[in-house]
Each structure stands twice: as C-alpha cells, then as structure tokens.
Amino acid sequence: MNANKLYEKLDKDFGIETLRDDWSFMSFNDYIAPSFKRHYMGIMLDNTVRVKKVYTAVFPDSLILNKIIESGGTDSLLFCHHAMGYDGSASGFPFNNIPDDYLLKLKEHNISLYVLHVPLDKNGEFSTSVNLAKNLELEIIDEFCEYEGVKVGVICKTGLKTAEELAQYVESVVRHKVKLRNYGDNVIRKGLVAVAAGGGSYGFVAQEIAELGINFYITGCTRPVPTFEPTMEFHKIASASRINVLGATHYTTEKYACIAMTRYFGGLGLEAEFIEGRFYLEDL
After folding, report:
1. Could you give the CA distance from residue 14 to residue 17 in angstroms, rounded to a whole number?
2. pLDDT of residue 33
3. Residue 68 lies in a domain
4. Is residue 148 located within the same domain as residue 35?
5. pTM greater than the 0.90 cutoff
6. How many domains does the chain have?
C-alpha cells in the first residue's frame, strides 16, 4: 500500500487535525518528520514509500525495535501509541528518546513510525479504555474523564460484587500481579466501575469519580510519586472519597488498543502483527 495514502487514511479516520497533543519534551532531530514536530501526532519517521506490513506496539522500546529490525523485514510501518520508550522502573521521568542509532537503523530498513497518543485514547472502537473494558468483559454504559479536550475514560457495569473479586478477576485476565488499594467499602456500589487506561492517576480524575458516586477505579499507573504532585493529589482524593483503586500497569492497560489496531490495518488489506512489549510492576 502506498505509504502516504495510508498515513492520510489514518489521519482522517482518527481526526488528528481536530485534536491536540504534546511531545515537546522529547528530543527532535532530522530523522523526525516536520509535521510531527508541529503537531506531535501522526507520521513521526517517514522512511518508506510503500508499506508491506504493519507492526503495532504500545511503546517504541528497544525491545520492540530489535524484534522488528532482526526480522529482516523492510518497507514496514510501526504503529505506536507513544512516541517514546518507557521504563516504569525509573525513579524519575519514565519516558526516554529513541536512540539515534536505532533511528538510523529504522531508516536503513525502510521502517516508518506512526504515533497516535491522544487520538487513540479518545473513546472509540480502537481506543485504550474501551478495549481494556472489553477485554475485561465489562459492560460500557457511559464515558467520563476529559483529557486534551476529549473523553478518554468509560463507566462500566460488572456482575462481580466486591473489590477483591474484581481485583482477582482482572489479575486472571492480564496474567500478572495487579495492586488494589482498599480505600473504600469492599462492595462495589451499584456494580459500577470507572476505567481509564494508562496513566490515570490525576486528582481531577479521582474528583470526577467521587462526584459520580463510584467507588471502584481501574487504571494503569497507581504509584504515588512525591515529585509528581498530581499522583499525590489523586491518592489523597481517592482515599478521602473512599474509592478503591486498582492498578494493572501502564503497558498492559493500553496494549489491548494496539492489539485491536491489527484489525484496523487488516481491514485495509495489510498484514498486521502486534509486538508484545514489557510491563512494569513498579507502576503499581
């Protein structure tokens, strides 16, 4: 498929001209497409004129890049939710730039990189929170949590009765440890659960959940970070409002959207493969 036509199709289907994002804190160089330097979404590395295969991933970590490069494939597109690598075990800022030697290798192998952060978080068929809820078999009944001008969280119904039951169930689905902070009553009030994939530990999110009368919240990152005040405010409000908080890691809560995107590309007649990355229990 012609690469530019594919980029245009993605741009249109995910409405990037109407949205805003911010990756201004990353390092920019001549490898980065000029349009990405302005809008922080869409095509980031424009390295091929024809796309034969698409890989999808949450973060463009070295683990992911090595798998693609070592496969020997060329004329490919890497579709990522994030523009930077991620290390949840880092004590400070967890995001890291793609090293220049990898940028060169991607160029030499004709592998482009297309990034949708806010556009993929925006609630819809392929979005992060929607696909997390679907994989947890929760019934989506409404949306909440406005971020960068769009709704990115969903309100769901569950048949499970207690926080402990739901935590055990989530752990069985994601297949790794999760962390439940029992700030509230064990009984899930009215069977309602708020879900926002990724880094959803912000004070304004906890405040909205409290105002909705919901006492169970699922997100990715839940670790209180003293140097990042929004997380501290989040836990203060969640505790005071008696909201049980379950963390399932940044990576895992967002990967289901990137898995779903293989279906999107398949619908365009392209071979698409999700590349499994790494979760960090330190997020919890």
Report:
1. 9
2. 98
3. yes
4. no
5. yes
6. 2
